[in-house]
Amino acid sequence: MCPRCGKRVYFAEKVTSLGKDWHRPCLRCERCSKTLTPGGHAEVRTEHML
After folding, report:
1. What fold characterizes domain 1-37?
2. pLDDT of amino acid 10
3. Which pick of 16, 17, 21, 31 has the fewest CB atoms within 10 Å?
4. Looking at residue 50, what is its pLDDT?
């Protein structure tokens, strides 16, 4: 299942990044929506502290 859209990812259309299988158009930056290449980015999560 694609982490972005939740649909099944078939072998011919998949790209693997961050240990997950994605559709190529779904593998994009959450901030700017730029399409990413497998291995050319990193996952960053921040928590806001009060």
Report:
1. Cysteine Rich Protein (2.10.110)
2. 96
3. 31
4. 42
Q: Output the CA torsion 16→39→19→33 (10° steps).
A: -80
Please give the full DSSP string across 11-27, using - where no structure is assigned: GGGEEEETTEEEEGGG-
The DSSP 8-state label assigned to residue 35 in this structure reads: B
pLDDT digits 0-9 by tens, 1-50: 999 999 999 999 999 988 899 999 998 888 888 888 877 776 766 554 44
Using CA atoms, how far apart are residues 50 and 44, in angstroms rounded to an integer?
Answer: 20
Q: Quote the tokens at residue 34.
A: 């730029």
This prediction has a pTM of 0.70
Residue boundaries of the structural domains of the chain: 1-37
Give the span between the Cα atoms of 21 and 2, in whole angstroms. Answer: 6
